[in-house]
Amino acid sequence: MSLTDLKKGKDSKEKKKKFTIDEFISDAENYAKGTPKIVSELTNNEQASHKLSLKQAISEARRYVEMTEIEHQQAVEVKAGVRARVVKPFRRATFTLSEEAIEQLQGLSEGSDLAKSHILRILIDELCNKEQNEQLKKLLQSGIG
């Protein structure tokens, strides 16, 4: 893009209002009061095109409400998705194991192509699914110290 592309054309269709700096400053004060006269005021043609009939106004209001409800629903769904991603099925845990247990777990992992944590979850699940008497027997019989 060159500077000539940025230059305003001479045959601009919009007529610019001419005013002095003092008029601009006083209109800024009027703008602050909510009654602009020069800068922000629409021309008569623009004002006429911005006026809506009662039916059009009601229709626009309904459309606005529908759009805000849709946006609100989308925001709720996005938040729910974020919450769903935050709730993770697993949580980090740190355990102290003997060197022998670590080697055994490593061997199981390599032999089965399963992650060590996955193997531990399987073993815990298997132990928890046994009857209470079997659990106690299994736990007490283990010679691992």
Describe the protein's architecture and organization.
The termini are far apart. The protein is elongated, with a radius of gyration of 37 Å. The chain is built from seven helices and no strands. The chain is 65% helix and 0% strand. The chain is mostly helical.
The computed structural class is: mainly alpha
Shape: elongated
The largest β sheet comes out as: none
Beta strands, count: 0
Give the distance, in angstroms, between the N- and C-terminal Cα atoms.
77 Å
Using only C-alpha atoms, the radius of gyration works out to 37 Å
| Residues in helices, as a percent range | 55-70%
Helices and strands in order, then pairings?
Layout lengths: L2 H4 L14 H13 L10 H7 L3 H33 L12 H14 L3 H13 L3 H10 L4
Structure summary:
65% of the residues lie in helices and 0% in strands.
Please give a handful of descriptors for the protein shown.
single chain, 145 residues, mainly alpha, 7 helices, 65% helix
